[in-house]
Design a protein that fits this description.
alpha+beta; 15-stranded antiparallel beta sheet; two-stranded antiparallel sheet; 8 helices; 21 strands; 32% strand; globular
C-alpha cells in the first residue's frame, strides 16, 4: 500500500494489479486497520487531527449528549448553537476564482449563473459529528467482519450491523455504502414540505407531509446474521397534508441492501387505492417532489449500485453546508427560498475534509446521467454534495444535503436537500421548513402498503 500526499488532495492508493484489487473487495479489513479507530482515527474512521493551517480543527468528540443541551427552539425545531458567529468570509462572483479549489463544480456554476442572488458564507469549522458509544463499538467490529458480496443490483455489504460498515474504505462503493448506512438515529417523525421553484422564480408547493422514518440496521437487538437475512435498512412513510389536491396521498418506501427486494407503495386519495410502484429506482422521477428529482437523487444519492462504476478520487478539503440549524429558523418559505436559489442568509458553509467519489455509467447500463462526483463528509459519512453530467458532458444537476446538529440523537442529521437543475434554471427544496421533530421507534408493520391503505380508509 502506498500513501501519496499533496497540498490539495489526500489520496489513498492501493497499488496492485487491477484484478487483485477487485478480488480484495470480498474480504473484510484487517485487525491492524481496525486498531487505527482507537488511535489516529475517530471511532467512525475520520482523521482525528486537524489540517496543517488550522482551518479544520482536530476532532474532540463531537456532540456530547451528556453535556450539550437540546437546541429547543419552539415545537420540534433545533435552534442555531452558533447563532453569534459571523462569517469568516463570503465567496461571490468577484472572488470565486480565489477559492476555486475548495468549491464543487456545481457551486461555482451557481455563483456564476446567479451572481446577484447566490453567495457562499463560510463560517468557522466545527467537527460536531458523533454517535452513541454502541455505534462506535459496532463500527469497530464492522471494520473486520464486514465485506462486500456480489448481488444482482451491485455489490452489497454483508456481516455489518449497527455502525459504519467500512470505516477504512478501500473502494468507492464502500464509501457510498457508508453514506447509505450512516447513523441518523433509529427512528423519527417530522413534518416538512417540498417546493419547486421554476426559472421565472415562482414557488409551487408540491407537498407538505408528515414523515415517519425507521432504520432497522441500527436496532440494538439486531445482529449481522439477522440483518443479512432481512436486508431492510431504511423504512419511510409519508402522509400528505397539503396542498388540497395532495391531501391524503401517502408513500411507503422500504430500502434493502439488495435493491431487487426493495418495495415502494403509493396511496392515491382520489382513487382510494394503494398501488405498488413498479420501478422505484435510478432515474425514475419521485412522486411528491414534483417528478423533477429522480429516485437516486433523494438526499443526493439513494439507489442501486450496478448502474455505475465507483472510484475513490481521494480525500479533499471542500467548503460544504454544515451545522446549518439556521436553515430551520427562516420565518416563512419566501424568506428561505429565493427566486433562483436558497437565500444564502440561511445556509451555513464550513471547510471540511471529504471523500471524493466518481461515478461513471457502467458498460451496457442506461441512465440519463453519465458521470457524477460525490462528496462524503469524513466525520459523519453523510453525502453532502453531488454534481451530475449528462451524456453530452454538460453539468446539469447539483444536489446538496443541508445537515443539522441534533444533540437528542446525537448525530449530525439531515433530511433537507436542495436539487438544482442547471439546464432548466429551476430548483427543488425538499423537506424544508421542518417542524414537529420527534424521536420514535415505530411498529414495523406501519411501513407497509396494507397499513397505509387501512389507515387512509379510516
Amino acid at each position: 500500500m502506498a500513501i501519496i500526499w499533496d497540498k490539495t488532495i489526500t489520496k489513498t492508493l492501493f497499488v496492485g494489479v487491477a484484478s487483485l484489487m477487485l478480488f480484495s473487495l470480498a474480504f473484510a479489513g484487517t485487525p491492524e486497520e481496525a486498531a487505527q479507530l482507537k488511535a489516529t482515527l475517530t471511532p467512525l474512521g475520520a482523521e482525528k487531527a486537524g489540517n496543517a493551517d488550522g482551518t479544520i480543527p482536530a476532532w474532540d468528540g463531537g456532540i456530547d449528549p451528556k453535556t450539550t443541551k437540546p437546541f429547543a427552539c419552539g415545537p420540534g425545531k433545533f435552534c442555531d448553537p452558533f447563532e453569534s458567529e459571523k462569517p469568516l468570509y463570503s465567496i461571490t462572483d468577484k472572488n470565486v476564482d480565489q477559492y476555486a479549489d475548495k468549491l464543487t463544480d456545481g457551486v461555482k456554476a451557481l455563483i456564476k449563473k446567479h451572481p446577484d442572488t447566490f453567495r457562499v458564507d463560510v463560517y468557522p469549522t466545527h467537527r460536531t459529528a458523533s454517535a452513541p458509544q454502541w455505534v462506535y463499538d459496532n463500527t469497530f467490529l464492522n471494520a473486520t467482519r464486514a465485506k462486500l458480496v456480489p448481488g444482482q443490483t451491485g455489490e452489497m455489504p454483508q456481516g455489518a450491523v449497527g455502525g459504519i460498515p467500512f470505516p477504512i474504505p478501500h473502494a468507492g462503493i464502500e464509501v457510498m455504502w457508508n453514506n447509505l448506512l450512516h447513523y441518523q438515529g433509529t427512528g423519527y417523525a417530522w413534518k416538512a414540505s417540498n417546493y419547486l421553484t421554476a426559472a421565472d422564480g415562482v414557488h409551487t408547493l408540491d407537498e407538505t407531509h408528515y414523515m415517519r422514518v425507521q432504520m432497522p440496521y441500527f436496532f440494538k437487538e439486531s445482529t449481522p446474521e439477522k440483518f443479512d437475512a432481512s436486508g431492510f435498512y431504511w423504512l419511510v412513510r409519508t402522509s400528505a397534508t397539503a396542498p388540497a389536491n395532495h391531501t391524503g396521498q401517502g408513500l411507503v418506501g422500504r430500502n434493502n441492501v439488495n435493491r431487487d427486494k426493495e418495495e415502494s407503495y403509493l396511496y392515491l386519495e382520489g382513487q382510494r387505492r394503494t398501488r405498488k410502484l413498479p420501478n422505484s429506482c435510478c432515474d425514475t422521477p419521485v412522486p411528491g417532489i414534483g417528478l423533477t428529482v429522480s429516485f437516486d437523487e433523494v438526499n443526493v444519492w439513494n439507489s442501486r449500485m450496478d448502474r455505475f462504476n465507483w472510484k475513490i478520487l481521494g480525500k479533499k478539503e471542500i467548503i460544504i453546508p454544515y451545522n446549518s440549524n439556521k436553515t430551520w429558523m427562516a420565518p416563512k418559505v419566501t424568506d428561505l427560498l429565493g427566486a433562483h436559489n436558497v437565500n444564502p442568509d440561511y445556509i451555513r458553509w464550513e471547510l471540511h475534509r471529504v471523500w471524493v467519489v466518481e461515478a461513471t455509467l457502467a458498460p451496457g447500463k442506461s441512465h440519463v446521467m453519465h458521470r457524477s462526483l460525490y462528496y462524503v463528509d469524513e466525520d459523519s459519512w453523510m453525502l453532502m454534495m453531488g454534481d451530475r453530467w449528462d451524456g453530452a458532458g454538460n453539468l446539469v444537476r447539483t444536489i446538496w444535503n443541508i445537515p443539522f446538529i441534533a444533540p437528542e440523537i446525537p448525530a449530525l442529521w439531515n433530511q433537507t436537500f436542495i436539487a438544482h437543475d442547471l439546464k432548466k434554471d429551476a430548483y427543488v427544496g425538499a423537506n424544508v421548513m421542518g417542524e414537529l421533530f420527534e424521536l420514535h421507534r415505530f411498529p414495523d408493520q406501519i411501513f407497509t402498503g396494507e397499513a397505509m391503505a387501512q389507515e387512509s380508509v379510516r
